[in-house]
Amino acid sequence: MQGETKSLWGTIREFAIIIIIALIVSWALKTFVVRSFHIPSASMQQTLEVGDRVMVNQLFFNDVERGDVIVFDDPGGWLAPGVTAQYKPNPVLVFVGLQPADAGTQLIKRVIGVGGDTVECCDDQGHLMVNGEPIDESSYLYPGVTPSDVPFSVDVPEGHYWVMGDNRSNSLDSRYNTNATGGPFVPADGVVGEVFVINWPLDRLRWMGSDEKTFATVPDPQGA
User: Fold this and answer.
1) S-S: 173 plus which of 110, 141, 164, 167, CB 3.0-4.6 Å?
2) Is 139 tagged catalytic?
3) What burial class does residue 116 get, using C-beta atoms within 10 Å of its C-beta: 0-12 exposed, 13-18 middle, 19+ buried?
């Protein structure tokens, strides 16, 4: 009987150790490697639809590049207090890593300009220009929208990014945050990660990556 008791407690102890290790691995993965995010608005249509869930790579083996879709912390004043207050994370989903606790203060946009770039709208054909080179964004822009309804010309500071939504007429992106507390640029240390897959709903399951072809002819910024 005593031997059976020891065997039972040994089994329980091993099971407990396995559970603890699994929880630690899950915590490490969601904290340092990948995270899941829910798309709450139409600003990235039709690349990302409302209700999509995406996985975000938090390990940067390469620098953020033009065309990448990134998740980033609000630089300051981009999100209205009423918007952030509406976010109510599910504690169970947060615990297992399927929902971040701080997503209410984060946004998803596409990188158009990196540090040193000059981004302008627009040339005579209505295209955005990066370092004087017009770019064709038809591969990801929402059908029927223009590259920008407002003209602008900006020089992106080093260590920062100029970001825009794919649904340009419905995206409060860098263009509309020039007077925000944090300014219109996303600092590199505010980037959470790069979106690499849509994992829900299943009928929209697909890999994502940067749109390198769109920016393939863009020259390096002057002085690079």
Assistant:
1) 164
2) no
3) middle
| pLDDT tens by residue, 174-190 | 999 999 999 999 999 99
Which of the following is catalytic: 36, 109, 171, 210? 109
* 155: Cα within 13 Å, side-chain hemisphere: 6
Range of the domain at 146: 2-215
Annotated catalytic, 169? no
Q: Is residue 104 part of a domain?
A: yes
Give CA–CA dist 58/156, Å, rounded.
Answer: 23
The confidence score (pLDDT) of residue 25 equals 47
Query: In total, how many domains does the chain have?
Result: 1
The reply to whether 163 falls in a domain is: yes
Q: CA 193 to CA 8: how far, in whole Å?
A: 45
% of the chain residues with pLDDT over 70: 73
The answer to whether residue 83 is domain-embedded is yes
Q: Rounded mean pLDDT of 96-100?
A: 53
Q: Write down the pTM of the prediction.
A: 0.81
In a domain, 135, yes or no: yes
Task: Single out the catalytic residue among 36, 43, 171, 210.
Answer: 43
Q: CB of 78 within 8 A of CB of 180?
A: yes
